[in-house]
Amino acid sequence: MAQSTATPITTTQALAPLPLRAIAPWAVFFGVLMLVLLYFVGAEQGATAVVSGEGMHEWVHDARHLLGFPCH
């Protein structure tokens, strides 16, 4: 009895390039989102506070220390 092995067929498909117009709005959105998050983690405290009280400070307290921002 002869055994035969099947050889896998490999095909390569070229990916179509994404135009910059399709990527730009998402890049701007995520860039602004990251800047807002960076503000709340790094600067939302004291005289520059947008949110009054200590609530926001307490929510981002551990992230502040993890990223090396001075806190207290």
Summarize the structure.
By secondary structure, the protein is mostly helical. The chain contains three helices and no strands.
Number of DSSP-assigned strands: 0
Unreliable segments (pLDDT under 50, ≥5 consecutive)? none
For the report, how would you describe the main beta sheet? none
Task: State the helicity in percent bands.
Answer: 40-55%
Q: What is the average of the pLDDT values?
A: 81
Counted by DSSP, the helix tally is 3
Rg (C-alpha, Å): 25 Å
Shape assignment = elongated
Measured by DSSP, the beta-strand proportion falls in under 5%
Summing up helix and strand content along with how strands pair, one would put the structural category as: mainly alpha
SSE ordering: HHH
The end-to-end distance, rounded to whole angstroms, is 80 Å
Can you characterise this structure?
With 72 residues, this protein is mostly helical. It has a domain at 30-72. The protein contains three helices and no strands. The protein has helices at residues 20-42, 55-59, 61-66.
List descriptors.
mainly alpha, 72 residues, 47% helix, 0% strand
Element layout with pairings:
Blueprint: H1 20-42, H2 55-59, H3 61-66
